[in-house]
User: Fold this.
Amino acid sequence: MSITRRTFLKGGAMAVVGTAAIPSFLTRAAWGAAEAGSNNRRLVVVFQRGAADGLNIVVPHGEQSYYAMRPSINIPRQQVIDLNGFFGLHPSLAPFKPLWDQRHLAIVHAAGSPDTTRSHFDAQDYMESGTPGVKNTSDGWLNRTLQSEPAADSPFRAVALGTSLPRILAGKAPAVAVSNVNGFGVAGGNPAIPLGNTFEAMYEQSVDSVLNGTGRETFEAVKMLKSANPQHYTPAPGANYPRGRFGDALRQTAQLIKSNLGVQIAFTDIGGWDHHVNEGATEGQLANVLRDFSQSIAAFWIDLGSLAEDTVLVTMSEFGRTARENGNRGTDHGHANVMFVLGGPVRGGRVYGRWPGLDPSQLNEGRDLALTTDFRRVLGEAVYRHLGNANLNTVFPGFDNAQRAFLRYLG
Amino acid sequence: MSRPRCNHNKGTNCAQAYLRGVVVLTLVLAATAVLSAAKKNKNAGADEQKRALHALDRLSFGPRPDDVQSVAAMGVDKWIELQLHPEKIDNAAMQARLAGYRTLEMSSREMLLEFPPNPAVKAVMDGKLPMPHDPYRHAIYAAAIDRIEQQQQQKQNAANAAAQNASTSPASTPNVQPTVQTADLAQRPEDRREAHTVAEDLALLPPDARMQRILALPVAQQRDLTQGIAFEKRQALLAGLSPEQRETLLALNNPSGVINGEIQSAKLLRAVYSDRQLEEVLTDFWFNHFNVFIGKGADHYLVTAYERDVIRPHVLGKFKDLLVATAKSPAMLFYLDNWQSEGPDSEAARGVPVRGQSPGMNGPFARRGVMYPVPRPPRPPQQPNAQSNQQKRPNGLNENYARELMELHTLGVNGGYTQQDVTQVARVFTGWTIDEPNRGGSFVYKPRLHEPGEKKVLGHKIKESGENEGIQVLQIFAHHPSTARFISTELAQRFVSDAPPQSLIDAMSKTFLKTDGDIRAVLETMFRSPEFWAPETYRARVKTPFEFVVSSLRATQAEIADPQPLLAMLNKMGMPLYGSQPPTGYSTKADVWVNSAALLDRMNFGLALATNRLPGTNFNLAQLLNEAPLADADPYQVQLKLEHALVPGDVSKQTHQTIEERIVGPQAMAQFEDPSHPTNVNVIAGLLLGSPEFQRK
Assistant:
């Protein structure tokens, strides 16, 4: 929920009000008015940067071709975590199996962007702008999701975990980049003179439009986060985040969500998927990244506790990798890929989408897994049916956003 | 002026009066001329100052307090010309600062021996390589061996634990990953206290004796000493040691970290202190353009030589020379995987046996410097293994380098190439590889890996000619109009603005093509262009984290004793030096770096630097302002002086008033009467460094 009366009444508001004007969201909350169209539903997007190898992540172990095409880097049938007799998980994704069994985890295979570029940079750009093939889209689809459904003006309505605001959240609607929840503020100086307020005044009155806007967002967010008392946070028992950047990012995402700051959209990314050489099989480079990936997400799920009911997490990667291994026990840039969808309302325990097959004649350009589900189909359903935002033609312009085509992975 | 009374009848009077008139007229005219010239000079002076500031903002990493004056005095055009010829600028002081970083001058091969990576250590553990005798090197290897043994033990323990847990309910996620190393010293307070005591005692010893004692300690204690103790204690422990001793101590903990630390430190120090500022800016630019990630495997050991021998020497030369040098560099060959690329029809792929080696310098009959034509006995032909007879080995072609060569290094993503071109270019470059990459080897062309046959690239037929095919292709790219446009655009984005005017890019591209890709000429076109000096270009760029940190250090004339904390700060800000994992390198555009986390980081950095809370860096405000003792200074005067020193000519009314009212004003000053906070006026500097103005250049 956005800033609540609970926060205000705790006296947080008094600490928040320094020499700056009272932010409008507080005023609204103070009068106890519920924002129109408000709900607790939230969407978390995880981008695997570097073109993750979908075929070794959700393994089509029922396909003969898979083994023929990957003699040295395949996952043997005895070692996949079988899901439905045809597909299985890479063994490093063991933490996902309980989520699958509990029917909260769904998989969409042979999904991705229809654009044929094999440039990481362009493909990521297209997936973040939500307009494959179009280069001059200035904002990201997540930002358009916010724009098209104005709601509570909580500065934490959209957060990106990391040191920069990603393309996917670029745009007119405010979004906040947080690299460290506990360090989010201005430190030091004489405690009698709150320097944060001085900086705030400087930025507020600055005629520099770029810095002025960001400055204002920043200080609203700082005050709000401080009032939520982040120092005293600990993850829920059983939520064992692995050490590392990705685990940290998800841990802090959970922290922000649980701190009642009105987080509706969260984004983070994880790199290290571009395995042209020595990808490995059940062990190796990909296996290591998958371990980090699945442990972090599983810990996040547990950490959310009851808030998981209203949360949907979706993963994406700019493209997949070649069906055949290359000469260096790795794979090159491919096409379709796998997407995970995890959430309370998700009808999990199923693989969605049409499987095109791995027979050489069924491959895209004779080399990659062919595409049968556009990524916007998957994301559109989350935006429409989970976040309740019906403006899909704004979020994904130029795409046929018809609801009848949804995969219906949400219950 | 009254007319002289002149009566021709009186004679001389007329002449005198006339002369007087002329003198007065001349004087008046002269006075007017002088006054008008003075006014012009004042305007020109002000204009020249503004131009000097802009030139400094763009061609350097930021002005130091006296720079604007001195550049204006020299003449901006002259200064630019000088910067374009760095060999004319004395840099001895810079060299002196870097003298302690021995790895900067080492070859990759030397580095690998002195600061071994795990594979080299494992080779010693397996008996394949001898354990070094030299006491310092021996200690480094011994520490590394111990570390590896610990890791193996931990992995074993974790595997055992996982096996036991296999049947337990998976309600909570198992923490199975083998975490590195023993627990942090920070979590072992007893041991930490012990380490501090030992460190203090050791610090009292003269360097040689100190080293002897440390090397005699058990490895675990060495580890604690070099890794986990407090910053100041570590500084004391390292004080007075020779560069080799210092590096050895650091290597006890992390050998390849020494190399990282030195090259990152050098980059930061050069940016802050070098007088060849444009050369440093261009080295940063070209490294970023031909990005290599220091964290990728062997690249740890290849990046130092890459920047030193491949990038820096070519920054102002011909683009084609720079391009070829990067294409042949072990760093790039490794980073983009070309060293492993194999043609599908190459001898290697077909399993053709390796030809016997010809007699030569290394043969048993070779004498020093003389090649004896004694033939060696012929080697028995190798039996091709059965498998290669029956089935072709999988395609070993790697397209990574070919793609990035066109997309990122030369033509640009819209440069007009196709996927077919990518594959063809990849075939061209098969065989371009590294001799013994794990031993820091150099470029070698191996015909065995090369794809035979003619290739077609961008419509050009490339006849089969071995290594020369690659050279041909590089020349095609280096002279391509798309390359001219792409490079010009990148340079303009760095030096002019995020969206530079097309007219400028066109002019620069024209120069590029006309001068065979002469970078200096292209820069001259840019620096002389009206677009570069247009008012909208002033302050148009937002500084990247690196530019922000360096410009702060230059503006405050801070003295850096230990760059490590600053490097850590850059990591936190999202711009680890040499740390861009994707080949696109770091963006210079505002929208990437302007966000909440970044702004807060910058404000906090500015305050920390200004109030001397950055370990390893010292800011002397009194010295900067020539104002000692500072306590007696009038705070408002301090504010004015700091504004002039740190943000010359560009402090906004808003910033000025905010500081004046809240920090310097009478009510605020009352709160400053706190003896426990003596550096309160330093806060003004911090606020200026964090101000909106200072984020721009």
